[in-house]
Fold these 2 entries.
Entry 1:
Amino acid sequence: MFLVDEEHFGELFSLLKSVKFKRSDFFLQEGEKCQYLGFVESGTMRSYYVNEDGVEKNFDFHFKHNFFTDYESILCDKKSNMNIQAVEEAEVLLLNKNELQKLYHKEAYWQQFGRRMTEKIYLGAKKRIEDLLYYSPEKRYLNLLKENPLVFEKIPQKFIASYLGITPQSLSRIRNRISH
């Protein structure tokens, strides 16, 4: 399992609960407090927000062997502004946030695990913000195609467009321009 060495894998695995999500099932809905860290065993999940106009804004996609959760909700013990939903049938391993805290207090290894996970999340969020601030929609599309081609195999076009900060029509124009 990502970020966990063989020596500690069994300890973590004993705390995990396997849950199957059907397409469109929610791991978390806006207004709920997040209680779990998720790990995708199979399938695909997405994290998104609904803006004040009721429009979904995709923030991230989670594929096999990715951790995901609403870290703000877990860390600050507050209601989530985020939705996390299955894009397709998915099997997810759940770790209760209280069990995670117990691991952190148990051994320095788990504190390092938490730090590595936090660093990975921070760098991913920083890159996401930089992409939206610095690059044109076409460049964002090309970057995504290069860095994560799986998105184009697993994720509906309307979700990809939202993730890139453009309309589905703009995405279609970009795809046509690039293919010619």
Entry 2:
Amino acid sequence: MPETRERQDAAGTDARVRHVAVIGAGFAGLCMAIRLRQAGIDDFTVYEKAGDLGGVWRDNTYPGAGCDVPSILYSYSFAQHGRWSRSFPRQNEILAYLHRCAEEFGLDAHIRLGTEIVSARYDEADEVWRLRTSAGDEHAARVLVSGVGQLNRPRYPDIAGLRNFTGAAFHSAEWRHDHDLTGRRVAVIGTGPSAVQFVPEAARQAEKLYVFQRSANWVVPKPDREFGRRELTLRDKVAPVRLFLRGLTYVRAETVIYWAIRGGRLAKLAEYVARKHLEKQIAEPSLRAKLTPTFPIGCKRILISDDWYPTLARENVELVTEPVGRVIRTGIDTLDGVHRPVDTIIYGTGFLATEFLKPMDIVGRDGVALQDVWKDGAAAYLGITVPGFPNMFMLYGPGTNLGHNSIIHMIESQAAFILGKIREGGVHEVEQAAFDRHQDRLAADLAGTAFAADCNSWYKNAEGRVTTNWARRTLTYRLATRRG
């Protein structure tokens, strides 16, 4: 991928006021940048704290990393191609796709790598956002767009003694590729979407693998396969075929999967499929009981895997459901007094999804800090904008995550909304009344979904309130963003 000097170097202080500043060069930030370019708006900069673009697909390089959304949907509608090698894309293919998009749409000169924005303050007199980087450099823009999303900061478990451990310990999003698991005694804490992908890989290498589970998840079969040469050619060269397959997959997500997370007959059917999947792959009754969820399907993210259950049935793997009491120098003690000696701990404990925009210090009108506004939980009008923060917009913000479809569809809706406001010019700020109406509707909608059921989920904040998710169809959201 060609590099430009601006992409290679961190940004110094820039006295010029840019039209738009975008924070983050993952799927969301790049989508916004592409839409700006397509609209003929070139006065923008994308600030990326890391040394490369890609967001979660740059960071999550653990063995088996991939997407749980079909590749035909996990891509921009305006940058479709048929070169995905399989039904569900792997991390390396997704990252390559993002690099290709950045190159094809001419984003290189707009991206400043190694530039972390730590604060943004609204200057009411000049109607601009004053940005400061971790290096102390200053920048300014009339419009501020956050593309950092929800899954950008690893979450570590609150367990006593984590720092006492003398072996290797790391989060799955910060995988230690220099640490060979072959012949080691390994503990994995967490059994979520990342763990379901890397645990099977780790089990093939480790001498002994302990998987510590807080609660069982619903797991369904993964209809994944590699595409043959003829099918690849057809998908790549015949656009109508690609469009038909994308549309078919989208409709299935908006109907069958959507209703499965809203309770009723389809939810019962989904649970039946998941139970049969468990019964087919786990013969031992006590292990099967440990792996049977106690909450409605969809309360936590539904996992898709064909090798998760067989991995947990391996002789060198032990599923531990007793709560972890503490970590000591040589391993992990559970509350029942059992010590399990390990030399490696891997945290598959997800991300700080409900701590939106942290640790950035964002201050709007009248010196009001965004985190103070959000002290009872993050919220935004359509997940995009907040009263008191003029010309500040978010992609993949509060109340926009999904449990049934591709987040890329939501991001494109948000980018279109933001682009519309930018084209109008001037200063845009959502009215408090509109914000409140949206929050009331969203809360009522969420109450009717599995998201609000009794389970410990990353969808919820510390008080148990769902702050991450959208409760209705993506088409409903798109129409809402078009109305503004």
